[in-house]
Amino acid sequence: MNLKIRLIIMNFLEFAVWGAYLTCMGNYLGKAGMGGEIAWFYAIQGIVSIFMPTLMGIIADKFIQPQKMLGICHLLAGVAMIALFSMGASAAEPNKAMFITIYTLSVAFYMPTLALSNTTAFTIMKDNGMDTVKDFPPIRVFGTIGFIATMWFVNCATLDNGSFFFTLAENANKFQYTHYQFLVSGILSVVLFAYCFTLPQCKLVKKESQSLAETMGLSAFKLFKSKKMAMFFIFSMMLGMSLQVTNGYATPFLTHFKGMAEYANTFAANNATMLVSLSQISEALCILLIPFFLKRYGIKVVMLIAMFAWVFRFGFFGLGNPAMPGVILFVLSCVVYGVAFDFFNVSGAMFVDNECDPNVKASAQGLFMLMTNGLGATIGTLAAGAVINNFCQWEGDYLVGDWQTPWFIFAGFALAVAVSFWVLFKYKHNPDAMQKKVDEQQEKVEKILED
After folding, report:
1. Residue 219 per-residue DSSP state
2. Tens digits of residue pLDDT in 107-145
3. CA 20 to 30 Å from 450, out of 322, 404, 415, 432?
4. pTM for this one?
């Protein structure tokens, strides 16, 4: 089989595993008596991201080939997901402590695979003479396609009286509302485990000895000595607080409209997971805009655009409803998500790469991820959960209450971060300094368009 196709399959499965439950898990948790802990389920992903990717990366660097380590992690994560399905099948409200424990084990072994899959792909591509800059983006985009594919699958798949079928109409047994979403994730994860052991070998490379601080990436913290970089990382953490809010609460929010007679039969209320998938579609497309905006406006403006996009992301949710014309605001919220996510994560990573010395670039990228997807996402998700639980409560299958106020609070927070960043972050755009990075990004864009 063509090597690119093999890596496409790997990336498709890697993110299909995640897409099966990430955006719709909240609906099941509410029905299973764990609605008050939704924020913790998403915060756990941030907590384990602080240390598990580093630990698994060290093992993959020194002891186990990365493609095998990727497979082993998926086996453990997948078995845990299937265990969650079994718990959901045996009781309408599973033991909360045991359920959270097993879920934690699953994501603790899944989160490192995001980095391990990249390591595996890059190593295989380099070993076979491929250009990672030109050849990887068209491969990686199938990861987003995989994520969207399983979102659509669990949105439409249902089991009624032993019969399996797909529907867009109202159905209480759609996988997006039930424990079957974990089964889909678990099966795909086990399939990827087996597939990883068919991939080409990634030989371990003996590296120079490093101190524990260097190995753990702690040397990057010296970047805080620079006021510019310190401000950048602090604001990255603050903006990172928005990252998981809609992953955790967008589908419970959209689904609660099913409890209102005037909205009960609307497409948006009954297909929340599919509607939210527009966010991932937008994310895949908006990355193509980054080279132009970075070259023309620079990192500060691009980051500001991302921050204001988060304002609109939350604000549109607060103003919309599932009926026409209100549903248009929900669609717009999903469209601006691509700008909010990509302009922050991708351009931020490019800024770090451009500003840091070569000897700390890898550690600096790890620090960027720690501040955003680790600390920022964890703090933000728990804070958002506290706000929503204050204004809303579960009644049967729906999380009902004053949803508008939380969305406006989140929008106000994003606006405050944007204004503060505008005033406090001092950075003069230098087109020449960014040109090399922009050219590299443009090559990726052209390759995607050619394919």
Report:
1. G
2. 999 998 988 888 888 889 888 888 776 788 788 889 989
3. 432
4. 0.85
